[in-house]
């Protein structure tokens, strides 16, 4: 075995006179593997094929085992003390555990050692290509030291050694995912990386004309690495558009990216907005701060540090390069920097929940400034971990058809409470909940009156678990005798037991002009900024948000704002402005519909639903406000009651089979509770038709109405 291999290789033992022999180790000139060497290193002793192989390590004699425990291997445990422990153990006829230190497991006899290896190490191992990666308790992976005053304490943790790379991972589930990611990348060769990857191995990614250097494992980083998630591109573009709108209102603008990581977001701000913003990128991780500085130099940005490293960073810039802008990079806790300094724009994007940083964010934010909060703890917000949501946000939550909007309102409520504690109110400008994150952008309003108004908009929600009907509790402190009376449905009277749950506290109505989770004017200005900066990927989402804020369909939507009127004819633009103002005046008095309905959730078994856009037209023709929602691709936001929603859906649905005889009873049972609503709506529509209990008559009526409405829709299009 070469000395460049850092582990022990055990050959087949030949037992003669109870003496175990082993191949002698051949020493090499270089005992430590060079950092740039590509030669493979042997697997760690915790990686074996069979349980007997682990027991063979314990059967080694004291001299042979101690010779393998050299200072150049991963088994260096305790110097002289560990050797004394081995000598005493072998003299007593006991065997130590090869994967545990003395303080963890003392030497014992063979039968007890066998149970120990089988139950503690082998049973929780991770299998890969015939090998077992057993859990290791040796001090080859020290935990980060804890500084307590002048004392430094170091503790060792259990971990797994990866058979492919040199990573050490603590949890078994994380180890399984780590191996799967290696397999997905095609990395199945068992070799160690002797040293951290050099700078030449960094990958350069480009996003929105901004270059960033990332580590090769940027998508699956360790805790000490800087994290870059390409799936958060929409989130970064939304925040950039919001900052660009605020930069038009005040200049210069001091903005803070409290959790910089690679610094991609702050670099985009400084590169595209120029001198109108003063960007500060903060991170408490030293490796992240170093990478932010390198990325600033890569984009020809001048780095200003608040510590002694300012001169070193200035000298790092080459003389022939021209600086596009200046970025301040700080290394401190996010709560500390937000307490020490005031900003006009603050963005929070921590790992997981952001509730721990809301008080600091609202403490010194300037009046009419903007705070954007990105929450990535979707397991708790999306009701997969309800106890975590109760712990972090103080909210009771269950899984519903509108769970994404429920998550957005939970975050808005927590933001409103944090702002109210600082005598500040909020105006919700934007609330987006997608697959990987929940983004809330609010404007800060100073004063106790806005704070009181924000606090009053937080209420509880009554949700029916049978029909998915929901309604906010009435304002007031008086206890109601029967809360079920507030629900429009009668499930409590027809179903046994308790049918409804109380969710919240949630944001009832945001302090926006439309009374919704969106500010239409701000969204239109964001869309204009997205067009100006060429952000094509975010424009469809912004158009959907504007339609959702106005509760209109895309066919009624116009993206032309006041800034682009000079590009069109005066007559056409004036007509569009008049129609828009009339519609806004008519809808301003009406309350914006809260939540949405999923068309698949309320579909009828055995019936074909109409197309979603057709169904939106049918609801609009019935006199209801209707729009699609970004929360759910098959969701419909409307002010129609659930009974009317179901009745219109039943009316324009067709049987699966042409005969319709077998599907008739299914339709009648689904419409049993809402038969009165169907009768009223059909009478209002036709005037000369009547719904009866006859199955054939009902199927004929549906076919007749469906055909006639299809012809009308075709003529209107």
TrEMBL record:
Subcellular location field: Nucleus, Nucleolus
One GO BP annotation of this record: tRNA N2-guanine methylation
Annotated stretches, region: Disordered: 1-41, 658-717
Record's compositionally biased regions (Basic and acidic residues): 1-29, 682-696
One GO cellular component term noted in the UniProt record for this chain: nucleolus
Domain C2H2-type stretches: 160-187
GO molecular function term, any single one: tRNA binding
InterPro entries, sorted: SAM-dependent_MTases_sf, Trm1, tRNA_met_Trm1_C, Znf_C2H2_type
Catalytic activity: guanosine(27) in tRNA(Tyr) + 2 S-adenosyl-L-methionine = N(2)-dimethylguanosine(27) in tRNA(Tyr) + 2 S-adenosyl-L-homocysteine + 2 H(+)
Keywords for the protein's UniProt record, in alphabetical order: Isopeptide bond, Metal-binding, Methyltransferase, Nucleus, Phosphoprotein, RNA-binding, S-adenosyl-L-methionine, Transferase, tRNA processing, tRNA-binding, Ubl conjugation, Zinc, Zinc-finger
Superkingdom per UniProt: Eukaryota
Annotated family: Belongs to the class I-like SAM-binding methyltransferase superfamily. Trm1 family.
Protein name, UniProt field: tRNA (guanine(27)-N(2))-dimethyltransferase
Gene designation: TRMT1L
């Amino acid at each position: 075995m070469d000395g460049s291999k850092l582990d022990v290789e055990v050959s087949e033992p030949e037992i003669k006179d109870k003496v175990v022999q082993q191949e002698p180790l051949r020493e090499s000139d270089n005992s430590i593997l060079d950092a740039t060497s590509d030669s493979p290193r042997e697997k760690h002793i915790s990686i074996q094929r069979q349980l007997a192989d682990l027991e063979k390590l314990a059967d080694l004699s004291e001299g042979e085992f101690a010779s393998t425990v050299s200072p150049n291997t991963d088994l260096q445990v305790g110097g002289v003390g560990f050797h004394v422990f081995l000598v005493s153990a072998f003299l007593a006829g006991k065997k130590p555990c090869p994967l545990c230190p003395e303080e963890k497991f003392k030497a014992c006899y063979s039968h007890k050692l066998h149970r120990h290896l089988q139950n503690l190490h082998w049973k929780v191992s991770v299998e890969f290509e015939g090998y077992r990666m057993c859990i290791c308790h040796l001090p080859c992976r020290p935990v980060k030291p804890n500084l307590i005053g002048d004392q430094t304490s170091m503790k060792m943790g259990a971990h797994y050694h990866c058979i492919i790379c040199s990573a050490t991972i603590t949890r078994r589930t994380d180890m399984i995912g780590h191996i799967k990611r290696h397999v997905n990348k095609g990395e199945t060769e068992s070799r160690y990386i002797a040293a951290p990857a050099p700078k030449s191995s960094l990958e350069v990614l480009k996003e929105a004309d901004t270059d960033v250097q990332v580590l090769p494992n940027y998508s699956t980083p360790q805790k000490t690495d800087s994290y870059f998630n390409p799936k958060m591109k929409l989130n970064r573009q939304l925040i950039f558009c919001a900052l660009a709108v605020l930069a038009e209102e005040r200049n210069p603008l001091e903005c803070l990216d409290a959790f910089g990581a690679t610094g991609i977001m702050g670099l985009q701000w400084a590169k595209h907005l120029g001198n109108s913003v003063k960007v500060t990128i903060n991170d408490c991780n030293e490796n992240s701060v170093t990478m932010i500085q390198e990325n600033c130099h890569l984009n020809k940005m001048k780095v200003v540090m608040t510590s002694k490293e300012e001169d070193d960073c200035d000298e790092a810039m080459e003389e022939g390069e021209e600086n596009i802008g200046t970025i301040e990079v700080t290394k401190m806790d996010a709560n500390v920097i937000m307490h020490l300094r005031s900003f006009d724009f603050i963005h929070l994007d921590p790992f997981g929940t952001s509730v721990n940083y809301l008080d600091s964010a609202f403490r010194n934010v300037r009046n009419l400034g903007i705070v954007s909060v990105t929450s990535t703890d979707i397991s708790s917000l999306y009701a997969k971990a309800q106890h975590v949501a109760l712990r972090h946000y103080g909210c009771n939550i269950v899984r519903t058809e509108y769970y994404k909007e429920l998550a957005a309102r939970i975050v808005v409520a927590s933001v409103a409470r944090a702002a109210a504690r600082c005598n500040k109110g909020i105006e919700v400008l934007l609330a987006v909940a997608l697959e990987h994150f929940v983004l809330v952008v609010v404007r800060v309003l100073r004063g106790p009156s806005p704070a009181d108004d924000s606090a009053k908009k937080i209420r509880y929600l009554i949700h029916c678990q049978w029909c998915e009907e929901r309604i906010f509790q009435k304002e007031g402190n008086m206890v109601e005798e029967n809360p079920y009376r507030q629900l429009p449905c009668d499930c409590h009277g027809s179903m046994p037991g308790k049918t409804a749950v109380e969710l919240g506290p949630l944001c009832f109505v945001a302090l926006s002009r439309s009374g919704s989770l969106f500010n239409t004017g701000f969204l239109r200005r964001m869309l204009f900024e997205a067009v100006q900066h060429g952000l094509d990927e975010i424009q469809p989402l912004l158009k959907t948000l504007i339609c959702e804020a106005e509760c209109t369909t895309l066919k009624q939507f116009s993206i032309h704002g006041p800034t682009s009127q000079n590009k069109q004819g005066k007559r056409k633009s004036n007509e569009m402005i008049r129609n828009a103002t009339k519609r806004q005046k008519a809808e301003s008095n009406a309350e914006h519909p809260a939540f949405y309905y999923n068309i698949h959730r309320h579909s009828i078994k055995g019936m074909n639903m109409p197309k979603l856009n057709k169904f939106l037209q049918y609801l609009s023709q019935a006199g209801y406000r209707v729009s699609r929602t970004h929360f759910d691709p098959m969701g419909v936001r409307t002010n129609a009651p659930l009974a009317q929603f179901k009745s219109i859906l039943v009316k324009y649905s067709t049987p699966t089979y042409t005969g319709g005889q077998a599907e008739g009873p299914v339709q009648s049972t689904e419409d049993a509770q809402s038969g009165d609503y169907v009768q009223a709506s059909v009478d209002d529509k036709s005037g000369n038709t009547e719904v009866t209990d006859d199955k054939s008559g009902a199927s004929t009526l549906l076919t007749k109405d469906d055909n006639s409405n299809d012809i009308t829709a075709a003529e209107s299009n």
